[in-house]
Amino acid sequence: xxxxxxxxxxxxxxxxxxxxxxxxxxxxxxxxxxxxxxxxxxxxxxxxxxxxxxxxxxxxxxxxxxxxxxxxxxxxxxxxxxxxxxxxxxxxxxxxxxxxxxxxxxxxxxxxxxxxxxxx
Length: 120
Description:
disordered N terminus, DNA-binding transcription factor activity, about 10% strand, alpha+beta, ArsR-like_HTH, DNA-binding, transcription regulation, about 40% helix, WH_DNA-bd_sf, Arc Repressor Mutant, subunit A, 5 helices
């Protein structure tokens, strides 16, 4: 079985200019759409919020109660966020610990921040 393909971490300078500062090219639009699709799930948003608000890496074992889903489902959601370049995963013994990729949320916010403010 091959390793999963990881999406590049969203980097405003490498990926996308803010939406109101130019037209996205096809590659940038596809990359941004994959990231937004990964975030477009209530459970994933809850998991991301919980992990982002933690001062330390969060064990997957502690996230089941956060969303009220079975461990395999939580692991699937976490894997999706890792593949999208939003979370990092560190294996410690039998458990996996998750943190937000530094700058990933800020970069996404920068891309979206002023969308539509220049509309006439």
